[in-house]
Specification:
CATH topology of the largest domain: Arc Repressor Mutant, subunit A
Order of helices and strands: HHHEEHHEEHH
CATH architecture of the largest domain: Orthogonal Bundle
Distance between the termini: 31 Å
Largest sheet: 2 strands, antiparallel
Shape: elongated
Strand content: 5-15%
CATH superfamily of the largest domain: Winged helix-like DNA-binding domain superfamily/Winged helix DNA-binding domain
Strand order of the largest sheet: 1-2
Number of helices: 7
Low-confidence stretches: none
Number of strands: 4
Radius of gyration: 20 Å
Mean pLDDT: 87
CATH class of the largest domain: Mainly Alpha
Structural class: mainly alpha
Length: 179
């Protein structure tokens, strides 16, 4: 679900004017931030629409992708706890995702062969087939989305976004400062 429902961003002049009333407002930072949020929302919305055509949500797709070993291009079992950690969600959230994927026959739970107290989640043949159907279009869409940028611009974008992620994960910036 998109987080920002702002289609028309404020003009830079409006941000500049607002900075007179709010001295902590940096107009260029606000402009970049709002554009970043709007872009992520639009990308999220388009990806969500594509996945919905295949009866998948963002969360369900993420679980299926985590169960696919990219290096070997084959299924890799994982515990629900590992999947939750990889997805950055609580275990209860992951349990719900696994429940619906299992109900639809895309994954199965089995006792872990090493530790019978643990469960492993596996892709089923049907889950692998769904990924084979979804991924080509998904990869084409990603390439199409990035087509306006040449390779150097893409690398620059990744470098810049990585700097923002690193900064937001910093304890001093994790939440807005309260006064």
């Amino acid at each position: 679900m998109p987080f920002l429902m702002l289609k028309d961003l404020p003009r830079y002049e409006c941000l500049l004017e607002a900075s007179l009333q709010f001295p902590d407002l940096d107009p260029t930072a606000a402009e970049a931030y709002l554009n970043l949020l709007r872009t992520s929302d639009e990308v999220f919305r388009a990806r969500e629409a594509y996945l919905a055509k295949h009866h998948l949500s963002q969360g369900r797709f993420t679980v299926l992708m985590q169960l696919l070993d990219k290096a070997k291009n084959c299924a890799t079992p994982r515990t629900p706890a590992e999947l939750a950690e990889l997805a950055g969600v609580r275990r209860a959230t992951m349990t719900g995702l696994i429940d619906t994927l299992e109900r639809d026959g895309l994954v199965k739970r089995e006792p872990d062969p090493v530790d019978r107290r643990m469960m492993s989640v596996h892709l089923t043949a049907r889950g692998e087939e769904v990924l084979r159907q979804v991924l080509p279009g998904h990869f084409q869409w990603m390439a199409s989305l990035m087509a306006p940028l040449d390779e150097a611009e893409r690398k620059t974008l990744v470098r810049l976004l990585s700097k923002i992620v690193e900064r937001v994960q910093s304890p001093s910036v994790a939440t807005p400062v309260e006064r």
